[in-house]
């Protein structure tokens, strides 16, 4: 856990900064499409960590995704859907990037 | 309760002619009535919490603008009941899923269905909504029958409208009138044959997920009304501990502290910001002196202690069949460690006090 006080002037993005229900970001679209949430308490953390990973490593492997998400726990037991949603987000983000390059 | 005259007249109609009980079996609906009991009378079907809250409009309201509102006293915790209960209501009403919204666990508006626990929401609330929706639909058909002069059994419903054999469509929104659903449920509901289910058979995306993945309002702590203040409670160090004294003077002058509250052995603090309340609570806990007495049973005697406590048995399923006489009987006693299933996250409660009235509105959740 990183206390916000250590971040000083650095820019912080939270779930609210990614997109909205009407215009969801790829990671949000993927979680909605896969229905990858039960109670949802762990989901913002899962999503932000996955989002950060995919921004740094757009082609992160399934094993890299799992390793990256390892510190996050879901007590509802939604892990398999969460992983499926992140894999979908990976392809959505890569498709969007390919579209941008064109 | 208002509208009593309506109830009585409807009751007398039901008791008098029985004209409202119509046969929809040809349209895939079956009367929800089980076989007779041992005395030969008709058994009352299980109708969930409709038995506790028999007025149809406790569960469903139809608005003149076409919107339909479902009410449940159960809370959405991620188990998906908002979606499931909406599916049940839309199915039995024959209304499009998107035309319905749901109000959950609102002390001012929904039936008090007590705990949301034990997988009882669909069973108790869902069954009530299923029957209420089916009966609301029946009342709409009856109204359409009166208006068209056609026999009710010639009418059918789809997409929130009653349809006549000649193709005329009477929208629910036009058929409904103020007190139509403010009636007690009739003894029988014409429920859909499970083979005819359409909306309940679909895997409809959960209505609560978009808010949960976009930082929207999903839980009590997502609510940020203007003028909100935060409270924290100082927990006693052990069960039954009595507060001897607490010098709260230094806590009262801490940043953001609005009030230190003491009521017997209860102490808590109210502050402008959440972390100010946490810091004040910690200081208050450090300043409190308690008298502790051992009141809990000792671990070794726990099985006997637990067995001696008042208990209420609930039969979930009893499918025992008569079996042949045992060839050999074995008897044994097993105990296991007592486990309390407790929430380790913060329980949230939001209370709104309206200055013009003296009423309190409260929301609570994990």
Q: How many helices of chain A?
A: 4
- N- and C-termini, Cα separation of chain B: 33 Å
Largest sheet of chain B: 3 strands, mixed
Beta-strand portion of chain A reads under 5%
**Terminus-to-terminus distance of chain A:** 39 Å
**Low-confidence region ranges of chain B:** 1-27, 33-42
- In N-to-C order, the SSE pattern of chain B is HEEEHEHEEEHEHEEHEEHEHEE
Content of β-strand of chain B: 15-25%
- N-to-C SSE series of chain A? HHHH
Radius of gyration of chain A: 14 Å
Polypeptide structure, described:
With 102 residues, chain A is mainly alpha-helical. Chain A is built from four helices and no strands. In chain A, helix 1 (26-34) packs across helix 4 (79-101). The mean pLDDT of chain A is 93. Chain B is an alpha+beta fold and 366 residues long. Helices cover 24% and strands 18% of the residues of chain B. Chain B contains eight helices and 15 strands. Chain B has a three-stranded mixed beta sheet. In chain B, strands 5-6-7 form a three-stranded antiparallel beta sheet. A three-stranded antiparallel beta sheet of chain B has the order 9-12-11, covered by helices on one side. In chain B, helix 2 (81-93) runs parallel beside helix 3 (121-148). The two termini of chain B are 33 Å apart. The relative contact order of chain B is 0.11. The chains are: A mainly alpha (102), B alpha+beta (366). Chain A binds chain B through residues 14-16, 18-21, 24, 28, 31-32, 35, 37-41, 43-44, 47, 76, and chain B through 77-80, 205-206, 208-216, 218, 345, 366.
Write the layout of secondary structure elements.
The complex is a heterodimer of chains A (102) and B (366).
Chain A (H helix, E strand, L loop, with lengths): L25 H9 L8 H14 L5 H8 L9 H23 L1
Helix pairs in contact in A: 1-4, 2-4
Chain B lengths: L3 H13 L12 E3 L28 E3 L5 E5 L8 H13 L6 E5 L16 H28 L7 E3 L2 E3 L5 E3 H4 L14 E3 L16 H4 L17 E5 L7 E5 L2 H4 L4 E7 L2 E6 L2 H14 E4 L10 H7 L39 E6 L6 E6 L1
Parallel strand pairs in B: 3-4
Antiparallel strand pairs in B: 1-8, 2-3, 5-6, 6-7, 9-12, 10-13, 11-12, 14-15
């Amino acid at each position: 856990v990183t206390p916000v006080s250590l971040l000083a002037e650095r820019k912080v993005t939270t779930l609210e900064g990614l997109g909205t229900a009407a215009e969801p970001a790829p990671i949000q679209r993927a979680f909605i499409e896969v229905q990858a949430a039960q109670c949802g308490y762990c989901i913002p953390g899962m999503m932000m960590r996955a989002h950060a990973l995919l921004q740094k490593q757009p082609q992160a492997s399934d094993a890299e995704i799992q390793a990256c998400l390892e510190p996050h726990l879901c007590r509802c037991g939604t892990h398999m859907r969460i992983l499926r949603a992140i894999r979908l987000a990976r392809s959505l983000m890569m498709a969007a990037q390919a579209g941008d390059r064109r | 309760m208002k509208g009593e005259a309506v109830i009585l007249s409807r009751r007398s109609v039901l008791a008098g002619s029985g004209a409202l009980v119509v046969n929809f079996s040809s349209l895939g609906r079956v009367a929800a009535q089980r076989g007779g009991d041992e005395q030969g009378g008709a058994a009352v079907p299980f109708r969930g919490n409709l038995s506790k809250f028999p007025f149809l409009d406790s569960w469903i309201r139809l608005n003149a603008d076409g919107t339909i509102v479902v009410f449940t006293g159960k809370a959405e915790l991620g188990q998906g009941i908002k979606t499931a209960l909406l599916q049940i209501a839309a199915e039995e009403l024959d209304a499009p899923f998107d035309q319905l919204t749901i109000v959950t666990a609102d002390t001012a508006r929904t039936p008090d269905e007590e705990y949301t626990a034990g997988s009882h929401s669909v069973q108790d609330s869902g069954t009530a909504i299923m029957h209420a929706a089916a009966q609301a639909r029946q009342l709409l058909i009856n109204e359409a029958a009166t208006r068209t002069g056609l026999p009710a059994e010639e009418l059918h419903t789809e997409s929130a409208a009653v349809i006549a054999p000649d193709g005329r469509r009477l929208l629910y929104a036009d058929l409904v009138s103020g007190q139509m659903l403010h009636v007690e449920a009739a003894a029988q509901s014409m429920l859909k044959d499970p083979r005819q289910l359409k909306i309940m058979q679909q895997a409809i995306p959960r209505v609560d997920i978009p808010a949960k993945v976009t930082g929207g309002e999903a839980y009590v702590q997502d609510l940020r009304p203007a003028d909100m203040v935060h409270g924290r409670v100082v927990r006693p160090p052990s069960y039954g501990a009595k507060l001897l004294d607490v010098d709260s003077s230094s806590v009262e002058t801490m940043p953001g502290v609005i009030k230190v509250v003491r009521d017997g052995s209860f102490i808590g603090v109210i502050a402008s910001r959440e972390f100010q309340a946490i810091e004040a609570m910690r200081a208050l806990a450090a300043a409190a002196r308690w008298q502790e007495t051992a009141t809990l049973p000792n671990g070794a005697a726990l099985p006997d202690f637990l067995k001696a406590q008042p208990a209420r048995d609930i039969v979930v399923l009893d499918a025992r069949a008569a079996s042949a006489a045992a060839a050999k009987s074995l008897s044994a006693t097993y105990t296991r460690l007592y486990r309390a299933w407790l929430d380790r996250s913060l329980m949230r409660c939001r209370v709104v006090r309206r200055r013009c009235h003296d009423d309190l509105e409260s929301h609570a959740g994990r």
